[in-house]
């Protein structure tokens, strides 16, 4: 396996794409994964054209927009990054893009998975998903993916620098809003997936007694924000949006996923979340220090250096809320990755929601789960 990562901050979309491609062409990639900041939203087709004119038609291109981008040299509010992968024929790649995630995220994810697997012509051994972070229901996405895929799957929701207005995913020549993009592979793609946040549940657990979609109205008979106030010592306020989470405990006992608030109704105490929590779910308020948040990076990377696995490259999906919380806008996460993995190429996407399984003690993975304020690592090996 060969990997290469590259970065460009050129304002012109076509030239930025061509520059990214020039940084990848030496390994003759089979697939190139591209993340870009919201400044390229109106130039996505030009960005793709620049990539294709250098790399040619044979390379499968895919990616989407983020709240800035990460690469091994740091964090950029304006720029684009790309990771090229060349398996030397050991892996076969395919992809699909489906629209309509706003209307029915589960159905759109199923449709993308079915098309991608038909194109692959063999069972998928690995999958990466990106979906519109302003329209997609993350819980619905993982529901659809779980119904259609049996392989490990990770990814996230595309972003737009905290504007919550429009985001893009793309595959090949096609770039679209209100869409989900799925990349699948069959064959020998050595990897380890990990997901962790660093947040710790505190106080008493409660049961969601009234909820509709992503809006939680009542927990343990109390207005949702009153329950949070009683457990945390303060109610959710504007500065807490996207940051202060509730833990939702998974029915299978594999742990918990996080949901952060997107809006609060001060009159009723209802909390709207970045992702659904079903009525009847068990929840708990969470808290974390800066050190805890960065500890989530270590936990997500986990045992990547054990069992004969040698890290050679990496992809990260990290919540934009973590970036907003950290003093140096995410540079701390990049530095922590460099400390753990050393001199390997990697890129990262600050997202509006993360998708990843949990890794069990026996090395197997759960079905994909939807997370908030979580750091997701896909570490690729030789």
Task: Give an overview of the whole structure.
With 382 residues, the protein is of the alpha+beta class. It has two domains: 2-196 and 292-381, no CATH class; 200-287, Elongation Factor Tu (Ef-tu), domain 3 (Beta Barrel). The chain is 23% helix and 37% strand. It has eight helices and 27 strands. The protein has helices spanning 13-24, 44-55, 105-120, 138-148, 224-232, 290-301, 320-325, 331-341, and strands spanning 2-8, 31-37, 60-66, 69-71, 74-76, 80-86, 91-99, 126-131, 153-157, 169-171, 174-176, 179-187, 191-196, 200-201, 206-212, 215-219, 222-223, 246-249, 256-259, 261-264, 271-273, 282-287, 311-319, 346-351, 354-356, 369-371, 375-381. The strands form four sheets. Strands 14, 15, 16, 17, 18, 19, 20, 21 and 22 form a nine-stranded antiparallel beta sheet that branches. The protein has a six-stranded mixed beta sheet with strand order 1-6-2-3-10-11, with helices on one face. The chain has a six-stranded mixed beta sheet with strand order 5-4-24-23-27-13. Helix 1 runs parallel beside helix 2 (44-55), helix 3 (105-120) packs parallel to helix 4 (138-148) and helix 6 (290-301) runs parallel beside helix 8 (331-341). The longest helix has 16 residues, at 105-120. The protein is globular.
